[in-house]
Design goal:
By secondary structure, the protein is mostly helical. It has one domain: Cytochrome Bc1 Complex, Chain D, domain 2. It is built from 7 helices and no strands. About 15% of the residues have low confidence.
Length: about 150
Amino acid sequence: MKITVIIISITIWIFGVSLAFADKPDKAQCPQNRTTPDAPEKYSGLKNPLEATKKRMEKGELLYMDTVQPMQCLHCHGARGDGTGELGLQADPLARNFTCAETMNTISDGQMYWAIKNGIEGTAMPAYPNLADWQIWILVHYVRQFGNNSAD
């Protein structure tokens, strides 16, 4: 009896997840078919001034997963950075898929810095003006590690 209830619960959960994604056939799409406004010129050419050390990557993970406000990155971009967080799949456009090298290699460090600091108009990406510059640069490193990408 208990096993039957568990099996039924799992089946209902799988069916519910399938329905949730049914209207988002392009979830985690690579490359993503979307446009983001370009950062002002003074940002677009910036390179991350911080080295991607183990300690900084650990701090980046903590920021991404737990501590940034108004909302942690994982809620939209997902724990794996693929844009499939619970809110990212509801966003229009969908949250950015950081695991897609084809897309991420076209985004400069400065563009990412600007997007985190100021948010992105016309999307669900909020601004994080209260983060210190070093925290934003650490997040840029952390986000890039999802696809081991470089914007060189």
